[in-house]
């Protein structure tokens, strides 16, 4: 290993020498100020003599950093006092959980690796990576028992397991502090919602709340739909009513309704009150149905066209429903009273001339279920007819919603 | 109407949080526990029954703190120890925990072997099958499913109740002794009392309970129900212990007081009272042993990996969480393997587990009280002064009694070589 590497746990306890090579104290913590520099150690905190007061050394007051000690170039040190902008590595990171954005998992920080750089006649520490593996565990266990150089030699036999600093996301349960630390949340927002959901499920409720308060509503809604119902309910309950309502508005109405039905009556009413527009109406409608019936499983977002329409009309209807494009596979034909008449695979519509009448493309009888149909029966239908989408109709035969294959998978997984 | 609806709501919540506290308290009656209670009844009859009330109280106090911490912080005990007290403390604790639990696992596989030998099943068949079964259940099952199996297993403890009833003990005598403390300054009697308390609160339980509360997603809000669950679980555990003692008191002590050497010895003692009493007693022992043999290795692997920051979880693949799976597998393989070795000093190992459990428990309890008093972690749910007094007193009492147990066990290990 290169000599310009230093570990946080080696830094701790290092003696700090003044200009006359007298010991000033020992290192107790190192701090980053993310708003000033994302990776440079800005301050080193010392405790001197046997006293309890700490002093703080600015990075530009250090001349050199070695395994034998830290030598200063300036002795004008100031007493340390709490500072909200500061991220203290020992207090805030060592032994705590952080998110490895690339590995998409939650890890525990066992050590932190620095790079010692020579910059304008002084040594500066830059945070390189966070150590999480067996090697860092070994290092910490034997440190102080064996001489540092021997520890370094021995650890070579154990593979490294670490994460680049840029790919870590630091959680700060106290929301005010997190914002001031200006920690970059884009890595989390860019993750696949299912991965983010996995991560969030591994965290404590406080940390979950911190993430959901911070990331944007859309990412939050997507991640939330991937979670287990009880955790969904927990998270929504922990958030401000307004934020919770915003997130639920972004979710598919059937999923939002499921979440609300998991909550206590009062809480769910409060949140529903706060919701707005179309999502609210749809969710309210869905809440009327039992969980294990077609009504409870269905989604109210679907594309329906009048049965006398043409392929061009259908394509126009699809264009207006761009949000559905990812999962949509069926177009429904209805009469003037919105009664379901037929179903058409989207592909068949696409492959036909724009002027053709939709009713001419219909091949099979439409398979549909009433809103009160039981979940078991619906699963049977999906299996028997290899369905991707199943329309649900109300007492008058009007389109109420659709059950899709992913709803079926969720139901099956819970059984 | 309003009241009725509220009641219904609370009952619903109670059943949705039932699991962790109940299971943990019941696993407390593992092979070692059953042996201790059987011995108490066989040797001293109904006399030791009064200890069950204070034992229940101690159990409630410690379990309540663990489940409260789990519900409020959403973190396991080993997580919190790591975060608040650092890696080295955690590592030492985990090392002792693994050793102690390994001996616990051995004791439970021994329990499986001897219970099934009463049904004429050779241990060379029963133990490997049980080990593989346990491994598969945990590795292939989901938490919800495994918990259902566990809850079913707790129901099987009813065996002991029936077994106790079949023996037709002297209920009046049992009732009187349940509330009338009798202290005798007889060395054997004191040793037995200490043993009874010592087996009731084990270090691994505290880790398991808190982790299970977290896993179940119980939050501070549903905590009131969780607390009731813990209390109900602890009482249920004592009821079972009561029937074990009563069965052995009625069947063995009243006939001819004597020392029994293991739990099946106790079962044999029930023979004059009918085949069913024996069968039920053995079925109970088998159930308890296999139940504990499932939970202990699993909980150990989880605890260690969480504390040390290694990947864990039965929903991960072997390659994703190698340390977790290796640890879990090794605990089962070694725990089951030694039971098959001829001349393995099993009794000595079980005494060893008392020593290790006893050595670890004070630290676990002290860390728990320190953690539960941290405002930053527990907010308004930290211990009240009253609870702290009770908590510390329990801790001191447990420490005193377990240190005594440790010394006695060491003495036995020395003298039995």
Automatic annotation (TrEMBL), chain A:
<keyword id="KW-0129">CBS domain</keyword>
<dbReference type="InterPro" id="IPR006668">
    <property type="entry name" value="Mg_transptr_MgtE_intracell_dom"/>
</dbReference>
<feature type="domain" description="CBS">
    <location>
        <begin position="361"/>
        <end position="415"/>
    </location>
</feature>
<dbReference type="Pfam" id="PF03448">
    <property type="entry name" value="MgtE_N"/>
</dbReference>
<dbReference type="InterPro" id="IPR000644">
    <property type="entry name" value="CBS_dom"/>
</dbReference>
<protein>
    <submittedName>
        <fullName>Magnesium transporter</fullName>
    </submittedName>
</protein>
<dbReference type="GO" id="GO:0016020">
    <property type="term" value="C:membrane"/>
</dbReference>
<dbReference type="GO" id="GO:0015095">
    <property type="term" value="F:magnesium ion transmembrane transporter activity"/>
</dbReference>
<dbReference type="Pfam" id="PF00571">
    <property type="entry name" value="CBS"/>
</dbReference>
<dbReference type="InterPro" id="IPR046342">
    <property type="entry name" value="CBS_dom_sf"/>
</dbReference>
<dbReference type="InterPro" id="IPR038076">
    <property type="entry name" value="MgtE_N_sf"/>
</dbReference>
<dbReference type="InterPro" id="IPR006669">
    <property type="entry name" value="MgtE_transporter"/>
</dbReference>
From TrEMBL, chain B:
<keyword id="KW-0472">Membrane</keyword>
<protein>
    <submittedName>
        <fullName>Divalent metal cation transporter</fullName>
    </submittedName>
</protein>
<keyword id="KW-0769">Symport</keyword>
<feature type="transmembrane region" description="Helical">
    <location>
        <begin position="188"/>
        <end position="209"/>
    </location>
</feature>
<keyword id="KW-0812">Transmembrane</keyword>
<keyword id="KW-0813">Transport</keyword>
<feature type="transmembrane region" description="Helical">
    <location>
        <begin position="150"/>
        <end position="168"/>
    </location>
</feature>
<feature type="transmembrane region" description="Helical">
    <location>
        <begin position="385"/>
        <end position="410"/>
    </location>
</feature>
<dbReference type="GO" id="GO:0005886">
    <property type="term" value="C:plasma membrane"/>
</dbReference>
<dbReference type="GO" id="GO:0015086">
    <property type="term" value="F:cadmium ion transmembrane transporter activity"/>
</dbReference>
<feature type="transmembrane region" description="Helical">
    <location>
        <begin position="7"/>
        <end position="27"/>
    </location>
</feature>
<dbReference type="InterPro" id="IPR001046">
    <property type="entry name" value="NRAMP_fam"/>
</dbReference>
<keyword id="KW-1133">Transmembrane helix</keyword>
<dbReference type="GO" id="GO:0005384">
    <property type="term" value="F:manganese ion transmembrane transporter activity"/>
</dbReference>
<feature type="transmembrane region" description="Helical">
    <location>
        <begin position="354"/>
        <end position="373"/>
    </location>
</feature>
<feature type="transmembrane region" description="Helical">
    <location>
        <begin position="47"/>
        <end position="65"/>
    </location>
</feature>
<feature type="transmembrane region" description="Helical">
    <location>
        <begin position="323"/>
        <end position="342"/>
    </location>
</feature>
<dbReference type="GO" id="GO:0034755">
    <property type="term" value="P:iron ion transmembrane transport"/>
</dbReference>
<dbReference type="Pfam" id="PF01566">
    <property type="entry name" value="Nramp"/>
</dbReference>
<feature type="transmembrane region" description="Helical">
    <location>
        <begin position="119"/>
        <end position="138"/>
    </location>
</feature>
<feature type="transmembrane region" description="Helical">
    <location>
        <begin position="273"/>
        <end position="295"/>
    </location>
</feature>
<dbReference type="GO" id="GO:0015293">
    <property type="term" value="F:symporter activity"/>
</dbReference>
């Amino acid at each position: 290993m290169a000599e310009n590497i230093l570990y946080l746990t080696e830094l701790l306890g290092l003696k700090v020498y003044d200009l006359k090579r007298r010991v000033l104290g020992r290192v107790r913590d190192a701090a980053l100020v993310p708003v000033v520099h994302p990776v440079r150690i800005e301050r080193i905190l010392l405790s001197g003599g046997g006293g309890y007061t700490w002093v703080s050394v600015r990075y530009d007051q250090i001349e050199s950093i070695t395994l034998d000690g830290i030598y200063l170039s300036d002795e004008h040190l100031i007493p340390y006092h709490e500072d909200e902008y500061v991220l203290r590595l020992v207090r805030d990171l060592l032994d705590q959980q952080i998110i490895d954005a690339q590995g998409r998992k939650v890890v525990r920080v066992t050590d932190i690796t620095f790079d010692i750089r020579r910059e304008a006649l002084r040594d500066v520490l830059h945070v390189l990576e966070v150590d999480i593996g067996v090697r860092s565990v070994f290092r910490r266990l034997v440190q102080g028992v064996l001489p540092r150089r021997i520890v370094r030699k021995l650890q070579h036999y154990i593979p490294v397991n670490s994460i680049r600093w840029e790919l870590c996301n630091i959680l700060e349960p106290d929301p005010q502090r997190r914002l001031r630390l200006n920690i970059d949340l884009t890595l989390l927002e860019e993750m696949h919602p299912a991965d983010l959901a996995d991560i969030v499920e591994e965290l404590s409720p406080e940390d979950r709340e911190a993430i959901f308060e911070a990331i944007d509503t859309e990412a939050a809604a997507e991640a939330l739909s991937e979670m287990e119902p009880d955790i969904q309910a927990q998270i929504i309950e922990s958030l401000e009513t307004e934020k919770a309502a915003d997130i639920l508005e972004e979710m598919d109405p059937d999923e939002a309704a499921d979440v609300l039905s998991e909550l206590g009556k009062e809480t769910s009413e409060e949140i529903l009150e706060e919701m707005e527009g179309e999502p609210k109406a749809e969710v309210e409608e869905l809440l009327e149905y039992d969980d294990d019936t077609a009504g409870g499983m269905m989604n109210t977002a679907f594309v329906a066209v009048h049965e006398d329409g043409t392929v061009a009309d259908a394509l126009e209807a699809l264009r207006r429903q761009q949000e559905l494009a990812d999962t949509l596979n069926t177009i429904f034909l209805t009469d003037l009273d919105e009664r379901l008449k037929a179903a058409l695979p989207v592909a068949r519509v696409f492959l036909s001339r724009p002027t053709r009448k939709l009713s001419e493309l219909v091949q099979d009888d439409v398979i549909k279920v009433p809103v009160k149909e039981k979940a078991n029966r619906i699963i049977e239908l999906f299996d028997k007819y290899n369905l991707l989408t199943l329309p649900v109709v109300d007492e008058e035969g009007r389109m109420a919603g659709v059950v899709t294959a992913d709803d079926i998978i969720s139901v099956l997984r819970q059984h | 109407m309003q009241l009725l609806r509220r009641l219904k709501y609370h009952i619903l919540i109670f059943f949705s949080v039932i699991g962790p506290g109940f299971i943990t308290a019941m696993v407390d009656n593992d092979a070692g526990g059953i042996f201790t209670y059987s011995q108490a009844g066989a040797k001293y009859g109904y006399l030791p029954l009064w200890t069950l009330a204070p034992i229940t109280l101690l159990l409630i106090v410690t379990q309540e703190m663990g489940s409260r911490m789990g519900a409020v912080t959403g973190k396991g005990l080993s997580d919190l120890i790591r975060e608040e007290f650092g890696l080295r403390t955690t590592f030492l604790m985990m090392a002792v925990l693994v050793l102690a639990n390994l001996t616990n696992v051995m004791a439970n596989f021994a329990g499986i072997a001897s219970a099934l030998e009463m049904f004429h099943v050779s241990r060379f068949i029963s133990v490997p099958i049980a080990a593989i079964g346990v491994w598969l259940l945990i590795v292939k099952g989901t938490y919800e499913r495994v918990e259902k199996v566990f809850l079913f297993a707790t129901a099987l403890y009813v065996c002991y109740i029936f077994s106790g009833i079949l023996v037709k003990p002297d209920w009046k005598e049992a009732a009187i002794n349940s509330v009338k403390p009798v202290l005798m300054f007889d060395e054997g009697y004191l040793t037995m009392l200490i043993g009874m308390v010592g087996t009731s609160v084990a270090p691994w339980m505290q880790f398991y309970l808190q982790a299970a509360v977290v896993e179940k997603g119980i939050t501070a809000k549903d905590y009131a129900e969780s607390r009731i669950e813990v209390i109900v679980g602890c009482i249920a555990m004592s009821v079972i212990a009561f029937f074990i003692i009563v069965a052995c008191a009625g069947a063995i002590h009243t006939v001819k007081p004597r020392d029994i050497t293991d739990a099946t010895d106790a079962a044999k003692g029930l023979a004059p009272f009918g085949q069913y009493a024996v069968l039920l007693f053995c079925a109970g022992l088998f159930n308890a042993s296999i139940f504990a043999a499932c939970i202990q290795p699993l909980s150990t692997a989880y605890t260690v990996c969480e504390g040390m920051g290694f990947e864990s979880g039965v929903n991960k693949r072997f390659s994703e969480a190698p340390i977790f799976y290796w640890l879990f597998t090794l605990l089962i393989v070694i725990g089951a393997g030694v039971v098959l070795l001829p001349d393995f000093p099993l009794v000595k190992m079980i005494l060893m587990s008392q020593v290790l459990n006893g050595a670890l428990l004070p630290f676990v309890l002290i860390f728990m009280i320190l953690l539960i008093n941290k405002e930053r972690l527990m907010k308004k749910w930290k211990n009240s002064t009253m609870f702290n007094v009770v908590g510390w007193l329990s801790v001191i009492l447990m420490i005193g009694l377990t240190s005594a147990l440790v010394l006695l066990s060491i003495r036995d290990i020395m003298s039995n070589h």
